Amino acid sequence: MRKRNKNFELYSGGTPSLRGTLAKIFILGLVDAGVGFVLMILFGKEKYGFAIFLGLVTLLVNWIYLRRGGLPAKYLAPGVILLLAFQVYVVIFSGYISFTNYGALHNGSYAEALDAIQQSAVEPIEGAAEYEIKVVKAEDGSVLFLGLDFNTGKTFLGGEDYAKHPWREITAADGLEVDGSGYPTSLSGVTFLTDDEIVEVDPGVTTMKIPLGPNLDTDGFIATADAFFAQQNRFSYIYDEKNKVMTRLVDNKIFPADETAGFFKNKDGEILSEIGWQVRVGWRNYKKIFGDPDLRGPLSGIILWTFLFAFFSVFSTFVLGLTLALIFNDERIRGLKIYRAIFILPYAFPAFLSAYVWRGMFNTEDGFINRSILGFMGEDNRIPWLEQQGPARAAVLLTNLWLGFPYMFLICTGALQAIPNDLTEAAGIDGASPWKIVKLIKLPLLLVSLAPLLIASFAYNFNNFGAVYLLTGGGPFLNPTLKVNAGATDILITFVYRIAFSGSQGADYGLASAFSVLIFILIGSISFFSFKRTKGLEELTQ
Length: 542
Description:
54% of the residues lie in helices and 12% in strands. The protein has helices at 2-12, 18-44, 48-66, 71-97, 110-120, 195-199, 216-219, 284-291, 293-327, 336-348, 351-361, 368-373, 389-417, 421-429, 434-462, 465-469, 492-501, 509-541; strands at 122-124, 130-138, 143-149, 155-159, 168-170, 176-178, 184-187, 190-192, 210-211, 221-224, 229-235, 237-240, 245-248, 253-258, 263-264. The strands form 3 sheets. Strands 1, 2, 3, 4, 5, 8, 9, 10 and 11 form a 9-stranded antiparallel beta sheet that branches. A 4-stranded antiparallel beta sheet has the order 12-13-14-15, with no helix packed on it. Strand 12 (237-240) and strand 13 (245-248) form a beta hairpin. The protein is elongated and about 120 Å long.
């Protein structure tokens, strides 16, 4: 019984205080209020699946924290929720997007794209009349436009229902009264709306279209953008809702909705408008990556350089960091803390600022490296650091070495201090040289603890967007004949960024997501097999 009570106290967290209970209820109340607001928005946008999932998660969180007991779950719940939100969901969402054409030209649903196309299809009739209008309400409740033609001085009246209120000229015989400048002041049978009443008109005065004839599509209409001035407009094309077809009025060409491309496209391949909608395209993005010769050509070289960049970045920073850690692991060195603080300084400065500083230092003509360090003053012997492939890649590796060695210095210093002094002292007594002590004792023990961090560092540098993009922008771009803009220092992530987000067609999130999934699989596979190999290091040190 005592054992049971002890375990209960351990896993329940003991008896909570009144203050702690009230604070917990208050915090949960704030969270629930925020979730309730989000749920209203989700239901308003008809996102029922996500709303139900979020509601269930909120109920689960409330149950975990309001019940007594389950102390491990209370500590694990925030981490698990953040993991699901920022890792698992992102991976799943990216995988889903990779099978769609989602992008700058396809960023909404069919209904949203149709609405945008129809709005863009409105154009003013060249040379047609323009009006100063008053918004009025008829006796039957219809909202009408009373417009004064600027050119002729005639007054017209009409509503959206052409059969009941056609757009026609009205005169004093219709009960129209005007002021000295000919502006309408009153009209029998209608009520002039105030500004506040105009704002309350549903669905809105600025969305109204007053037909100029029986057929709105072909005869044109009156529309206003501010409820003060209006002009005659017409549609560039009309929509057949039953058959999902757009007809361009200027030449009567037909553009059916192409559900495989997400565009209104005719039989000749012509696209009606660059406004499209999101559709599932299957494996098309992946086929483009491996099948498009414009992509496949530079991609193989970029993948190879990405591996080399990640490997040499980890190798160089680890070697330099380990060397400094070994040298400055002797407590007899005066000012040891000052030296260690100096080595950490590059790690303390923002990486993007350091990258821009190095970019200026690598300037061919006026850079600090060419002028002051190397002393190259003439034009013939200057090193074109950022203008040729070899020097540019060397510059990227040198910059990344500066940015990365403090981290390796820190973790190597910590790992060295964790090695028992008895081992190294015993090896020294047995006659082992300092090099053998490092090689046979310290390095194997270091690799056991540092191997996971080295693997993580490789994965980080594999996607080290900032180091490359801020320093060289992926350049230099030495082959202008390529249809795809690939640079000499582009790693996979910078190349993907340029292809997917900087193209002439705008952002292509579907293609970017396909690349991201492939990078995830690649890095995940490398990390998995690398972690399996680290078990061998543990066996060697046992």
